[in-house]
Amino acid sequence: MSEDKALKTASVLSFERKLDPSDALFFAGQWSKQEDPTAWQPIEVREKSVRGTISNRLKKGEVDPAKLNAAIEKPNLQTVDIASLPFGADTLKVEFTVRVLPGVGEPAACNNTAYRKKLFETVGTYLEKQGLNTVALRYATNLVNGRFLWRNRLGAEAVSVHVASLANGTATPVGVFDALSYSLQNFEDQPKSKSLVALADLLAAGLSGKHHVLLRVSAFVRMGAGQEVFPSQELLLDKGKSVKSRTLYSVLCAGQAVAALHSQKIGNALRTIDTWYPDAATNGPIAVEPYGSVTTQGVAYRQPKAKKDFYSLLDNWVLKDREPTLDDQHFVIAVLVRGGVFGDAG
């Protein structure tokens, strides 16, 4: 093939996400009432004003003793949002749905016919040889281990996750799982129950287009009566319009504001399956991202200079027919499931 006709990445190339979670709503009730859907009351976000102390690191150069004492001795007055269980309830219920979409590797937009054809062939070869069970089992594990609960999972006495399929308008139980029996640190040494395998098979079937898959996930977290729970915190870009130091997320449900987790936060937890990057043995799973970025750590674990980032792996695979290692193939497919805009405008 001549240089001017060499296959190039499409300048317009995007993929829809294939795991589409809803927001997760918070309810309160008793641990013993898990099977009674009428026994759970919505948890509301409320305001609280507190008188705290100054504890942040002072700016460099503040050496005047008088100003220093005035700065650290004055009270820290603030208004915050808070959500908690009532004293008549010991369990948090977190409920959401997940829609599984078909067409892994099929671009939502691609302006290069030759590239689109080669991409189909590359992904098709992977699907024929490996299938989607490897990545699907990891997504399933993150559903049953309660990773999506984030801080609400820490210190819980017990966590039970109920998964049901909502196909054809009826709820069909898939399994009930003891979330604390599953580790958050790896995917290899996990109990492979029949229910977990069935859930993984269901996710794989949805991703491959064999079945329409819509799941309802209900997690029950036994925390203790009156304990604080942790919905998503809102990112306020214009802080000048808010008098609150912390604003929590809530959504309207039947006319009532209910504490909730962002769908993006649920999605991030479900795709925390990347243990194929170089530092995984010590750092544990991270969310699937093109550069392995973990903003809470300020690190990108998949650096382009190491050729372990998504773009390097995809280009070598599709454009140069250099097949990545099996682990890297799983990673590339997981990024396509994640979705995003990956065109090369250069």
From TrEMBL:
Pfam families: Cas_Csy3 (PF09615). It comes from the Bacteria. NCBIfam families: cas_Csy3. This is CRISPR-associated protein Cas5.
